[in-house]
Amino acid sequence: MPAAPPALVGAAPRSLEGLLHRFEPLVLPVSAAQAAVTVVLREGTHEVETLLIERTAHPEDPASGQVALPGGHVGEGDGSLVTTALRELEEEVGLTATDLNEPLWYVTTQFAARFGIHVAVFAAPLAEAAGTPSPRSVEEVAHVFWLPRSALGVTQRVHRETPQGWREFNASIVDGHVLWGFTRRVLRQFFELPTEDDLVGPSFAHVNPLA
Q: Is 93 exposed, middle or buried (0-12, 13-18, 19+ CB in 10 A)?
């Protein structure tokens, strides 16, 4: 007998189409944010899964060893945040626009307090014929993995070092990968889970990208 699908986590639609078509395909200028990330989604065995990376540990890097969405800072000559998101996706995990089933959908722009920048969040479904995402440079990305939607509904407390010292945070842990902070809050918002009282500050408010 096949395993029963997991209970739906969050109030967002279950299907990929329903998840993505809540948003608009906006091409934002780079002036709207200082970085861009992409929520790449696929239909897993039982539920939707999200592509995540674990950054390579570097002592001088504040994002060292963190689990994150593929993405990064605006580069010279990018022109738009969609260009930034697609460039970073290829540089980090080897996926191009042809590996996505649709153009990028603009989700939101959020303030990443730890880094003091605004980050544009886009989303797109992985194409059936897409290549397998993998780290393009071990100097930048140590691991690539898929996070099941249901994992976001399980909260554990972890200790992490911050500029203010060691603090305790909410996290989701999958196969040893610890998802916490900005990326976890963005994904919980994407799947419309209740806001948690994270110690790093209030829940992110939507920022008008064209204001």
A: buried
Q: What distances in angstroms separate CA 35 from CA 21, 38, 193, one per listed residue? A: 23, 11, 24
Contacts of 61 (CB under 8 A, 6+ apart): 55
The closest of 39, 35, 38 to 152, measured between CA atoms, is 39
Token match 């992490």: residue? 160
53 vs 198: CA distance, rounded Å: 22
- Over residues 136-160, the pLDDT tens digits come to 988 889 999 999 999 999 999 988 7
pLDDT digits (tens, 9 = 90+) for 94-108: 999 999 999 999 999
C-alpha radius of gyration, the chain, whole number: 16
Q: Where are the domains of the chain?
A: 16-149
- The bridge status of strand 35-43 relative to strand 117-125 is parallel
- Give Cα 93 to chain centroid, integer Å: 13
CATH class of 16-149: alpha beta
pLDDT, one tens digit per residue, over 3-53 is: 666 678 899 999 999 999 999 999 999 999 999 999 999 999 999 999 999
Q: How many residues does the chain have?
A: 211
